[in-house]
Structure formats: C-alpha cells, structure tokens
Amino acid sequence: MSEGRDIIVQSLAETASRYGFRGVRATNFYREWPETICLLNLQKSSWGPQFYVNSAVWFKRLGPERRPKEYNCHVRWRVDSQMEDNQSKAFTQALNLEYPLPDDHRLPLIKGGIETYGFGLLARCENELTSLQVADECEPHVMVALKARLQEKADCNG
Length: 158
What we know:
Number of helices: 5
Strand order of the largest sheet: 1-2-3-4-5-6
Number of strands: 6
Largest sheet: 6 strands, antiparallel
Radius of gyration: 16 Å
Oligomer: single chain
C-alpha cells in the first residue's frame, strides 16, 4: 500500500508537466490559454481514502478568474466518466487507497487514465470552440454551464 495520496499526486504531477500544466497545492493543475483556463483537480472523498479526478475548462470571456475552482467552471467532467466500463473500474480501484493494489500497478493505471481522458482532452481545449467540441464529443458525461451554451448561441447568431 502506498503512502496515502502521494502515489496519486506523483502520477498527476508527472503527467501534468508533459502537457504544460502547473500544479497548485498538489491537487489542482492549471494550464492557461488566451481564451480558456484548463484545470485537472484531485478530489478526496468525504467518506474514506478514495479519490476522484475532475477535468474542467473556464472561459475567460465569461469571468476574470485566474485560478477557478473546478465546480465553478463552464465545462466539467469526471475523468473516469469517459472510459469504457473495465477501464473505469480499474481506474476507480487505483484511486481507492483501501483497494489492495501494489504501487507499481496503481501508478500506470492512474497515469493511463489521466493521460487520455484528463490532460489529453484538456490539451485540446485551447479555445472556447474546441472546448465545446470536446464537450459535444464526450456527451452525455460532460456538464456544460448554461451560460457557456447561451454565449455559444449568441456568437453563432451574431
């Protein structure tokens, strides 16, 4: 068993730097683009030693945030929601520190999931249009704030 969340944070930090993300307090990883701010967030369960990984995109035009909270962002998804059932199950088990898994198995499961469905998707969200395209591709497991959709319609009609 690993030393608590250290193995999870290590997985995130190693992958984040390859995609140009910078860590803040070991639980949030940000990358800023001219139109968007992309965020990968590590969330601890209130009920035990389980963790979740959330991805989010903030549209700068809709607010002046520099370090937005994941739950306030305009586009949001939980990383495992984009995976096939077997991969999602393995990823969820890797993020559950009660699940008996050696670190040398836990680390690649976490890295693989966040590389493809976290940082990989976020790396495509360099502007509002591509962020909304990613959201459309990943439906129905992506939340898009009504404010962002209304702005999208206004831009198309304007």
